[in-house]
Each structure stands twice: as C-alpha cells, then as structure tokens.
Amino acid sequence: MQHLAADNGLAGYVDRKRRLWLFSLMVPGLALVGPLLYMLVSPNVLWLWLSTIFGYVVIPMLDGVLGEDLSNPPEEAVPALEADPYYRYVTYALVPILWVSFIVNIAFLGLHELPWYGTLAVILATGGSLGFGLNLGHEMGHKKTGLERWLAKITLALGCYGHFFVEHNRGHHRDVATPEDPASARMGESIYRFVFREMPGAFFRAWDLEAQRLERCGKSVWSLDNEVLQPAMISAVLYALLIAWLGIEMLPVMLLIAFWGAFQLTQANYIEHYGLLRRKEPSGRYERCQPHHSWNSNHLFSNWALFHLQRHSDHHAHPTRRYQSLRDFPDLPRLPNGYFGMYLLAYFPPLWQRVMDPRLLEAVGHDPQRINFLPAKREQLMRRYGLSEAPLDGAGAAA
Amino acid sequence: MTRYQCPECGYEYDEAAGDPHQGYPAGTAWDSLPETFTCPDCAVRYKEDFRALEE
Fold first, then answer.
1. Is the pLDDT reported for residue A68 higher than 90?
2. How far apart are CA A6 and CA A307, in angstroms?
3. Is the pLDDT of residue A314 over 50?
4. Closest C-alpha among A134, A128, A378 to residue A265
5. Which of A142, A197, A338, B28 could form a disulfide with B18 if both were Cys (CB 3.0 to 4.6 A apart)?
6. Contact partners, residue A190, CB within 8 Å, separation at least 6
7. Which GO terms fall under molecular function for this chain's record (chain B) (predicted)?
8. Per the CB < 8 Å rule, is A213 touching B23?
9. pLDDT of amino acid A12
10. Chain A contact for B34, CB < 8 A?
11. At what angle do helices A59-66 and A339-346 cross, to 10 degrees?
12. How confident is the model at residue A398 (pLDDT cuts 50, 70, 90)?
C-alpha cells in the first residue's frame, strides 16, 4: 500500500491529509471504546459519555483551535487521487467497525444493569456512531461500483435507514435547495420543526422513486429488487436476532438509537442548505444546483472525521467525486464552525437564527427571491430584515 | 445505435444496451426516454445536458 506521489500521476502533489483520514475511522470508533473501558478498566459510567462529550465539546474546540484548510488538490492530480485504492480501503474498514460497535453496545446494554444516565449515554453514543454510518453510507452510496453500493446498504441497515441510499442520490440531489426538498431547511424553520418534514418526507420520496423505477421495470414494488426493501430486510434480521438474544425489552432502546442516528442526518441536512434557494426558470424547472446553494465548512478536524462532507458545494456540483478530491472554492456560503459545533447551535433556534440569518442574507445578497422561506414566517422575516420583493419576474421563491 | 454521456460524471447510456436497472430495456432509443430523465449516477445533469458520443 505504498504510494509515492512522484510516480503515480499525482504530478508532484502530496496529499498531506492522506493519513489524517484515519480520523474518519477513529472518531466513529469512540462509541466502542466507552463500553470496552467500562468492562475492562473500571465500571464507571463516565466512560460511556466519552464519544458524546468528544463530539459536542472536543470537536468544536478542535475546529476552533486548528482552524480551516483552504488547500485543494490540483485538478491534474485528481484522476490518480481517485484511483488510489487506499482511500477506498479506509471507507471499507469503517463498515466492520460500525457493525461491531453497534452489536457490542446493544449487548452491553442488554447484559448490564445501568443507571438511567448510563443507558442514555450508550443510546447517544451508539446513535451518534450511526450518524457516522450515515455519513459513510452517503460517501459509498454515491459511488458507481456494486461493492460500494452494497456496503452503503449494509452500513445504513444498522440504523434502519437504508432508504437514504435511494432518497439522497435520486431525490435530494435533484431537488436540493428548493421548497420541494424535504431535506433542505427553510429560513425561519427550527430543527425541531424540520425533523417532522425531513424524516417522513425522505422515506416517502425514496419509496416513490423506487415504485416508479420498478414500474418501468415491470416489477412489483414489493419485489426483492426494491432497494428500499433490501437494506430494510437486513435491518429486520439484525434487530430480530438481537431481540432473540437479549430480549424484547431491547426493541425500544434500539429504536431510540436508530432515531438518534437518523437525527444526526437531520442535523446535517438542516445546516447544509439552510434558507438557500435555486431559482425557478421560465420552463418551470429549477436552475441547476450551483456552489452557492450549499453551506460549507473547511474546519480541519470535523472534515477529517466526516470524509470531507463539509465541502458540500463541491459535493453537490460533482456528487460522484470521492472524498479525498473534494475542493474548497472562494466566496461560498460559509459556516462559522464545523458541523458538530453547528449542530449545538441548531438546538437553540433563537441563537441559530441570530448567527445564521445575517450570514444567509449576505450569501444571497439580501434578495428574497433567493431565499427558501418557511412560508408561515416569510412576511415576518421580510419585515424583520427590511427585505423588499424584487420586481416580479415569475421566479419562484418559497411556494 | 448511439451512446450518450453525462458531462458531469461520465455515465453512458448506450441505446443498444439500455439501462435495465432503471427500467429502460436494451434497444430503448434515447428519444423515447422521458424528458424528465436525469443521470442515474449523479442525478445533477438532465437529459438535454447529455452528449452524443461519436462511434
């Protein structure tokens, strides 16, 4: 696995982040460390809070301290960078880590008497690791190889979220930053309101997309070829086996964990396109997704932990591009911290609006035609920020 | 029979092979794909963005 920059088409480029991508394995793996320390070192509930504290306290601080990375691989190095199997192996390696972590944590909960705050810690830690699983399923689900697509389904099955594989690629990427997208947050919409639109909306969009595809194929929507049902069956078997082993009382715990995992995705979706809007063209179709339709963060540590997910504009411009090749561009909508710090902010909607609304207004040049408003708050927000409607040109703002 | 390529991600639609997974059997002409067709791999390029490839 020795790849020297000089001889493999990288045109002298050395990827300084190459080894640092291993953080994308280690940070999700922290959920496994808590129960292991509890069992092997000392039965202290504090161990179980390790990964949650790391996510909410240490990562935002590291992002603040380590700062941002504006470097990009040169375009001529990208083909070699994409072809280098090392980066793929890193993603493959996370699949068993997440599976082992999930099963160990569920077994740990089933076999230990814990105080409520111990159980809560394991639910948050394991759900958090499922969030990293969604990020991994996202990275691999965008790729073209059958192996990566199946690994995506297998990973997403842990949190009963296999439909994401369908809904994200063919739904979210098509509808992003429009009022039609349940996975794009609107200005004035709190995360607590967003989740009621995002979770069911994502599931039904996935189901509808598969129903349409299978109808074209002349197959029943209940066919085994249904890519929503395939990972759902893996989830059903896994959860049934764990219940058979540990008892039916594990079911509500596992569902809470799956919910918390899905909520990690909700948080990411919430901050990735908050308030940004693609214009509707005279044809009735939306303009193509542009880099300024996504929020970005170049913060070093959270990007290492998330396979560059935060370089989100480039991801939407080039969805099949691999994580190691994603680039930063100047003048993009920017988040003031990495995703983890922004999640914390989103939990406090007034604080979120105070920080993000001015940034949003600046990003869209104070043009309400470029803002995806929560319809019920549109008038109120227009008044609050002194916005006026541009001359009517038929361009659709929030419907 | 012509092949059409997505200018973003390189996905190729070959009329001879169709794309059975997407429900377009072998021999399905490009013109008979729906106008709402988007690239099955990247989903960010529309039918009119595709380029015909010279044989």
1. yes
2. 25
3. yes
4. A134
5. B28
6. A349, A352
7. electron transfer activity; iron ion binding
8. yes
9. 81
10. no
11. 120
12. very low
Alpha helices (runs of H) in A184-280, residue ranges in sequence order: 191-216, 229-246, 250-272
* Structure token digits, residue A273: 């396109």
Distance CA A5, CA A15 (A): 8
What does the alpha-carbon distance between residue B24 and residue B46 come to, in Å, rounded to a whole number?
Answer: 16
Do residues A55 and A261 make contact, with C-beta atoms less than 8 angstroms apart? no
Q: What is the pLDDT of residue A395?
A: 46
Q: Which residue has the tokens 């390189």?
A: B10
Q: Closest to A217 (Cβ–Cβ): which among B8, B11, B23?
A: B23
How high is the mean pLDDT of chain B?
93
Contact A174 B9 (CB under 8 A): no
B22 touching A, CB under 8 A?
yes
Q: From the CA atom positions of chain B, what is the Rg in Å?
A: 10
The stretch A323-341 carries a mean pLDDT of 94
Nearest chain B CA: its distance from A217 CA (Å): 4
Does ipTM surpass 0.95 in this model? Answer: no
Domain ranges in chain B are: 6-53
Give pLDDT, residue A397: 43
Which of B11, B41, B45 is the best substitution to test chain A (most A C-beta atoms within 10 A)?
B41
Closest Cα of chain A to B30: distance in Å? 15
Residue A112 at interface with chain B, using a CB cutoff of 8 Å: no
CATH code for the part of the protein at B6-53: 2.20.28.10
Residue A342 pLDDT > 80, yes or no?
yes
Amino acid at B43: A
Chain B residue whose CA is closest to A225: B21
pLDDT tens profile A69-97: 989 999 899 999 999 999 999 999 999 99
* A5 within 8 A of A14, measured Cβ to Cβ: yes
Contact B40 A170 (CB under 8 A): yes
Residue extents of the structural domains in chain A: 5-384
In A, minimum Cα distance to B35 occurs at: A285
The 10 Å Cβ neighbour count of residue A363 is 21
Q: Which residues of B touch A287 (CB under 8 A)?
A: none
Q: Do A216 and B42 touch (CB under 8 A)?
A: no
Q: Residue B42: its chain A contacts at CB < 8 A?
A: 173, 318-320
Taking each helix axis from N to C terminus, what angle separates A339-346 and A250-272, rounded to the nearest 10 degrees?
100
Going edge to edge, which strands form the sheet with B12-14? B12-14, B3-5, B51-53
Closest CA to A267 of A183, A325, A351: A183
